[in-house]
Specification:
Number of domains: 1
Helix content: over 70%
Strand content: under 5%
């Protein structure tokens, strides 16, 4: 190695030109987007399975007459399992990403709203039953109102963290909940199983296809 070669600065130490710096920033942004969105199709499919099997079990109970508590336990366990899997995936997706105070505050309030809203809906349903709402009407009310709430929360999430996919999912749930009120029992449970469950599977496939589609430019 000559004296001139030893004095020459290394390429890694040379300042990057603006185009190279922009390329690095874009690459990092794509990496974060892929990390945050890579689990979305899986989580959506998990919720599709929970809705399909959960409401399907409730419908089967109405048709066959096996103990109602078994169907309720299965339904609750499926929803809790889907929520747990979503939480794990959400933690893994956000690992290594530094969040600002504002984003942490927004995420905390949004998460608390899920619990607060769910408890409020339970209290509203209990108040209606206390004032004379029949068991038959309650079977329509509870699935519809919870689907409506979940759909609205999805839409809000899509607005806070701009995601068209989440907004579409929320709109789908709101629409399914409203339509279910006009379907006779127990077939409204079958409708909820197929519409919500299979609907989530379709959205999962569409989101996966969208992820694999090459970007323009």
């Amino acid at each position: 190695m000559t004296e001139n070669q030893r004095d020459k600065p290394l390429d890694d130490e040379a300042p990057l030109d603006p185009a190279a710096m922009l390329a690095i920033v874009e690459h990092q942004q794509r990496s974060i987007t892929n990390q945050m969105g890579g689990f979305v199709p899986v989580m959506t499919a998990v919720w599709g399975a929970a809705w399909l099997l959960g409401f399907g079990t409730l419908f089967a109970q109405q048709v066959t007459g096996f103990p109602l508590w078994i169907a309720i336990v299965v339904f609750v366990l499926l929803l809790l399992g889907a929520a747990a899997i979503s939480t794990v995936f959400g933690i893994r997706a956000g690992r290594g990403i530094r969040a600002s105070w504002q984003s942490r505050f927004t995420g905390t309030v949004y998460g608390v709203t899920w619990s607060f809203g769910s408890l409020a809906l339970s209290a509203i349903g209990g108040g209606l039953m206390y004032n004379g709402m029949s068991d038959a009407l309650a079977q329509h009310f509870y699935p519809a109102i919870y689907l409506f709430f979940i759909g609205i929360m999805y839409i809000i999430a899509g607005a806070i963290w701009p995601t068209v996919f989440t907004i579409v999912s929320g709109g789908q749930l709101v629409l399914i909940g409203v339509i279910s009120l006009f379907i006779p029992q127990p077939f409204h449970l079958l409708f909820l199983a197929l519409a919500a469950g299979l609907g989530f599977f379709v959205l999962a496939v569409l989101h996966r296809v969208g992820q694999k589609r090459p970007a323009r430019g």
